[in-house]
Amino acid sequence: MKPEQVQQARQGQHDTDELAAVQRILQLHADEPGALLPILHDVQDALGYIPADAVPVIAEAQNLSRAEVHGVVTYYHHFRSQPAGRHVIQICRAEACQSMGADALLAHAELRLGCSAHGTTKDGAFTLEPAFCLGLCASSPAMTLDEQPYARMTAKGFDALVAQTEGGRA
Ligand code: FES
To answer: Which positions bind [2Fe-2S] cluster (predicted)?
Structure first.
């Protein structure tokens, strides 16, 4: 087998494993009408994202159109259509954090990481996501790194966190 064929075979196995996980999740919700959101949450928890191949499978099981399922996946910021990087950074963009400079912090993060919000760094180390209230409004601007909260974040503090994580290889 040529290297590209090996890679394709690996990818095919990976896709099959993912769809098998989706099927198991669908079975768990088989008796729940209108379970689209819980199913999508379970798929993302299991796989880290909602694979494009899973959309028609979920749609059929829930008696919905692909467009309806795709619409829900893209409507909610929580759901990812692509796998996340090894570390996920969320920067709050809700009102209290905005009033304390969250937009400037996000702009700094985009510059520092070299990717835009909803994007992932080229080396796959960091995914940058906007969030809408992390429950730290009194200590804004707030962010999380791999679900660990950080309050009163500054550009300098952000750079330090990134540098500590994976040696700041972004
Ligand atoms: S508004 Fe940012 S944590 Fe609540």
So the answer is: 92, 97, 133, 137
Architecture of domain 3-75: Orthogonal Bundle (1.10)
Residue 31 CA to ligand 1 centre (angstroms)? 37
With residue 60 as reference, give the H or E element that holds it.
helix 54-61
Residue 86 CA to ligand 1 centre (angstroms): 24
Encode pLDDT of 15-56 as tens digits.
Answer: 788 999 999 999 999 988 889 999 999 999 999 899 999 999
Residue 97, ligand 1, Cβ within 6 A: yes
E strand segments, the chain = 87-92, 126-131, 143-145, 148-150
